[in-house]
Design goal:
globular; mainly alpha; about 160 residues; single chain
Length: about 160
């Protein structure tokens, strides 16, 4: 049960790190953060049988899309933390190391490349965007920051709970 609780905390913490990075990116480089309403809109259409959009921004708005997007963002972050713990086990939780966290963080970029971007109309790995290579690099950086967040959150949980 403790491992499940710690996984939850690590996933939330890593997602917060990613969100702080998004704020810093905006302030330092003028790069807008992810529009979670668009993610929520895409998710809200899935039960209606629409998985792939030409451009999600042109699809009709959905009720609670912003809330859905933010909740999904954190649920996905927690799920990725669970993948880390499933692969590396509770020993990683008791003694976090950066390598596995970064590896899992970077590997999670496959989900937006192969699923989310395709479904939202950006193509596989942002191939239909104005600047695909830039979008890809930013996605890899964001997911690397998430991986670093997994590690830092693992360390925080380790120290707070004296594992």
């Amino acid at each position: 049960m403790n491992t499940l609780f710690f996984t939850l905390l690590i996933g939330i913490g890593a997602t917060v790190v990613m969100d702080v990075w998004a704020i810093l990116r905006m302030q330092l480089f003028g790069i807008p953060p992810t529009n979670w309403a668009m993610v929520g809109r895409w998710i809200a259409y899935i039960p209606k049988g629409k998985f792939i959009h030409d451009a999600i921004a042109t699809s009709g708005t959905m009720r609670f899309e912003l809330l859905i997007g933010w909740v999904a963002h954190y649920v996905i972050g927690i799920s990725y933390a669970a993948i880390l713990v499933i692969i590396y086990g509770s020993p990683w939780v008791h003694s976090p190391t950066v390598g596995p966290a970064l590896l899992v963080g970077i590997a999670t970029v496959l989900a937006p490349f192969l699923i989310m971007q395709l479904g939202m109309g950006a193509g596989i790995a942002a191939s239909r965007t104005a600047n695909p290579n830039s979008a890809r690099v930013h996605s890899i950086i964001n997911h690397s920051v998430f991986g670093l967040g997994l590690y830092l959150s693992g360390l925080a949980v380790h120290h707070v709970y004296a594992l």
